[in-house]
Amino acid sequence: QVTRLRNSFVADKMEVYESLVSVLLDMGRKTEAFYTAERSRARNLIDLLGNNKLRLGEEKDQRLYERINSLKASILEQEKLVAQTEDEQASEAYKKTLEDLKDKYRDQLMQVQANRPEMRSLITVDPIEVDKFRELLDPGMTILSYYLLPDEIVCWVVTSEKLEVVRVPATRSDLKDTILEFRRSLQNLEPYESLSEELSSLLLEPVAEKLEQPKQVGIIPHRMLHYLSFAPLEYGGSSLVQEYPLFYLPSGSVLRYTLQRRSQEDKFRVLAVGNPDLDTPGLELPFAEHEVKSMGWNFSDFTELMRDNATESQVKDRVQDFDIVHIASHGDFDPLNPLFSSLKFSKGAKEDGDLKAAEIFGLDIRADLVVLSACQSGLGDIKAGDEVVGLNRAFMFAGAHTLVSSLWRVSDISTAMLMKQFYREYVDSNKAQSLRRAMLHVKTFYPHPGYWAGFILSGDYY
């Protein structure tokens, strides 16, 4: 009941943001509309995390996080007292206390900004302005930032040189049904072409003339677009991934954090985890072991954890020591509370084997790349608004520079083939280009996109 009430509360606030975005666009104020859309994504993340207790890695971070949340709660309570009291003297006292609390809150935010800037995304709205966002974009990069209003699709086409906006009439509920049917067709290896063309006519064709042959395309999804792989969508007689390397961002604001982590060195200390013993024969992933072992052919500094050794505690204790973390196991998506979504590992003496998203927030990850070669690892909850709160966002907050994850149940055989080719390419190419080439490689053997289009790359494409 509490979850339903919270989701309803957040959804109501999202309607206010959506109305404002629509009004600003009608007035021709496209930069302000972009900023408002970013603000709604940031606001929604905070609201969704608000009723969950996160465990952050550093004790000082945890104390600061809890102190700020306590101050926020006190400020809200004091504002209620100011609004409700009719006694003038009491009202002045409440106002004085409220100002003192706000001063303390601002001091804590300044401390966060100085020492732990990314924590701001968990406690306060901190959207990026479009001019600042454009400064982050490399030449040749185009970002398609989507925002779904009840009766139209909005897409900002952003490059380092310009910002354009495209508006397409479409009913959000109908679009959702089409995406779900498209996903079902891909996952069940059924005919998908007509659905691909329908989605392309709404999402790609209207912006095609504005792409101008970019070197890579970044996509910022909204609402149910988080569940959609753009790679197999019909484009120019082929598929979008046939033309461009693709990457995804949960919001434009996230890009500044991922770029701060961009390493100028090629470091390849690899931790590969495959086919943990889950005590259930039906959960065996024999090709995951081959997938892990094949990685050793590309990297000399290589550590593997398989079967009984692939425990939750081994991963949590060692993850900070590696530049590439590859996890070939099952993922479990919890639609009721996405922070309970988990990756499955072997049980240990102290751990249950389920590494939950809420726990991942507290890990110290320094990897340039985390690959979740697991079923439905890229999913998160979007019912209440937009921001996907699940494994992806948890890994990125914990320090992962780039994340590769899956959107649906993936074939064990084709995944092993895709990952083998991905790492072979990754040694010499950027991540987005490597994933594109790996997809096209698998496509030559397994043409149906259900085999190759399920993986998305979130974060920095480079």
Describe this structure as you would to a colleague:
With 462 residues, this protein is α/β, with parallel strands linked by helices. Helices cover 45% and strands 17% of the residues. It contains 16 helices and 18 strands. A hairpin with a 7-residue loop joins strand 15 and strand 16. Helix 7 packs antiparallel against helix 8, helix 11 runs parallel beside helix 15 and helix 15 crosses helix 16. The relative contact order is 0.11.
What key attributes describe this structure?
462 residues, alpha/beta, 6-stranded mixed beta sheet, 5-stranded mixed beta sheet, 18 strands, globular, disordered N terminus
List the helices and strands and how they pair.
Blueprint: H1 2-26, H2 30-49, H3 59-84, H4 88-115, H5 120-123, H6 130-135, E1 141-149, E2 152-158, E3 163-169, H7 172-187, H8 193-203, E4 216-220, E5 234-235, E6 238-239, H9 240-243, E7 246-248, H10 252-260, E8 270-276, H11 286-295, E9 302-307, H12 312-318, E10 324-328, E11 331-332, E12 342-344, E13 354-356, H13 357-360, E14 369-372, E15 380-381, E16 389-390, H14 391-398, E17 402-406, H15 412-426, H16 431-445, E18 455-459
Parallel strand pairs: 1-4, 4-7, 8-9, 8-10, 10-14, 14-17
Antiparallel strand pairs: 1-2, 2-3, 5-6, 11-12, 12-13, 15-16, 17-18
Helix pairs in contact: 1-2, 3-4, 7-8, 11-15, 15-16
